[in-house]
Write a structure and sequence with these properties.
alpha+beta, Alpha-Beta Plaits, 2 domains, four-stranded antiparallel sheet, three-stranded antiparallel sheet, 2 helices, 29% strand
Length: 101
């Protein structure tokens, strides 16, 4: 479970290895952006795919999605997970997408 606190802090509960106590972690990573040119339906399809795997994905322009992976324990893990999700989706559709970090 994730709860956003003031100042960009996030309180996470129930992660493996937790002591069961709530802890506050200072995470200030901005959403990563994915640029996908071409068919707007593909943009919506990618957004829906990312939401389906637990990401927060918002279409902010006709060819641009902002994404966060809320359960990633670190910014580096968030990037790895998002790259994997994106690689799977692009390979299954035969399209290319650019991840802006």
């Amino acid at each position: 479970m994730t709860e956003r606190l003031a100042g960009g802090r996030i309180r996470r509960r129930g992660h493996p290895g937790d002591s069961g106590h709530a802890c506050a972690t200072d995470i200030r990573s901005a959403a990563m952006r994915i640029h996908l040119s071409g068919n707007p339906e593909l943009v919506r399809d990618l957004r829906d795919h990312l939401r389906g795997v637990g990401c927060i994905a918002v279409e902010v322009a006709p060819s641009l999605i902002e994404v966060t992976v809320p359960d990633a324990p670190s910014a580096a893990q968030e990037r790895r997970e998002l790259r994997a999700y994106l690689a799977t989706w692009t390979a299954s559709r035969g399209v290319e997408a650019d991840l802006e970090e």
